[in-house]
Design brief:
The chain has 130 residues and is mostly beta strands. It is built from no helices and seven strands. A three-stranded antiparallel sheet has the order 3-6-7, with no helix packed on it. Strands 1-5 form a two-stranded antiparallel sheet. Strands 2-4 form a two-stranded antiparallel ribbon. The protein is globular.
Length: 130
């Protein structure tokens, strides 16, 4: 799966970004998105020898103009039916966090802090004009 995230209006610096287990973005805390997407029960962190979660991604870098973009690929999730599909019964979402993810710490979210933005994963055919 290719992830292409484009953001605006977020503070400059690195931010943790993860795929979360539920396709729900009820603000202001986005707790409705559930925890990190982790259907195989791995530990958190791209650099964790016992990880990563299926939903772990590299940090998102936002420039001083509050613009950011992440291009990433992952083979830990799929859009096709199966154990690691993002399009299961309750869907999935992307969460952007206030701070960078240390990519190692299993407890919590790698130190990436509060959830500051959320987007629900939808099939491309559900996107108007796609």
């Amino acid at each position: 799966v290719h992830v292409d995230a484009k953001v605006a209006g977020i503070s400059a610096g690195q931010h943790g970004i993860h795929i979360h287990a539920a396709g729900s973005c009820v603000g202001p805390t986005f707790a409705s998105a559930g925890g990190h997407y982790n259907p195989l029960g791995d530990q958190h962190g791209l650099e964790n020898p016992n990880g990563p979660h299926a939903g772990d991604l590299p940090n998102l870098l936002v420039n001083t103009d509050a613009q950011g973009r992440l291009h990433a690929r992952t083979d830990r999730v799929t859009l096709s039916p199966g154990a690691t599909t993002l399009l299961d019964a309750d869907g999935s979402s992307f969460i952007i966090h206030a701070n960078p993810d240390d990519q190692v710490t299993d407890a919590g979210n790698g130190g990436s802090g509060a959830r500051i933005a959320c987007a629900v994963v939808v099939p491309v055919e559900a996107v108007p004009g796609a």
